[in-house]
Amino acid sequence: MKKKILLLASLCAIGICTWEAKAEKFEKAPYCIYLGDINMPNEFDKIDLRGDLLMNVGPNAIVAGASDDAVYIGFNQSFGNVDISIYNGMGGLVYNTVVNTNVQQVVIIPFTSAANGSYIVELSNAFGYADGDFDKN
């Protein structure tokens, strides 16, 4: 229990989580900051993300998709600084950036010059990772 409280306090200290008083129980409960409903444009095929970064958050906390021209990532909740990497099918890094999700909720990565094939997008920060694969035709 102490480790859980310490982790939540750390998250709050960097702005990922806040505390909300629950009037009915007069206790404090953690929740992640909800930023809004960011919906992926229709021209993108959904990338199914999996990983521990997505545990204990809303079902659409992060939306991701790919088209032949770009990769789209939308953050409906704040995760602080998130490292975004894209790897080709042979494991080679083809793109990397760090995004402060407190400030920037949508990332569109141009992908027109990338070769056709399979790719993996990976999102990570100090609290975990999420990844998903997609194809460029």
How would you describe what is shown here?
The chain contains 1 helix and 10 strands; from the N terminus they run H-E-E-E-E-E-E-E-E-E-E. It has one helix at residues 2-13; strands at 17-22, 27-32, 45-46, 62-66, 70-75, 81-88, 93-100, 106-110, 117-125, 128-136. It starts with a helix and ends with a strand. A hairpin with a 3-residue loop joins strand 4 and strand 5. The chain folds into 2 domains: 1-32, no CATH class; 33-136, Immunoglobulin-like (Sandwich). Helix content is 9%, strand content 47%. It is mostly beta strands and 137 residues long. A 4-stranded antiparallel beta sheet has the order 3-4-5-8, with no helix packed on it.
Indicate the mean pLDDT. Answer: 77
- The name of the CATH architecture of the largest domain is Sandwich
**Poorly predicted ranges (pLDDT <50, ≥5 residues)?**
1-35
| Number of H/I helices | 1
Strand residue percentage: over 45%
Strands of the biggest beta sheet: in what spatial order? Answer: 3-4-5-8
Q: Quote the distance from N terminus to C terminus.
A: 48 Å
Structural class: mainly beta
* H-E order: HEEEEEEEEEE
The proportion of residues forming helix, as a percent range, comes to: under 10%
Overview features:
2 domains; 137 residues; four-stranded antiparallel beta sheet; disordered N terminus; mainly beta; Immunoglobulin-like
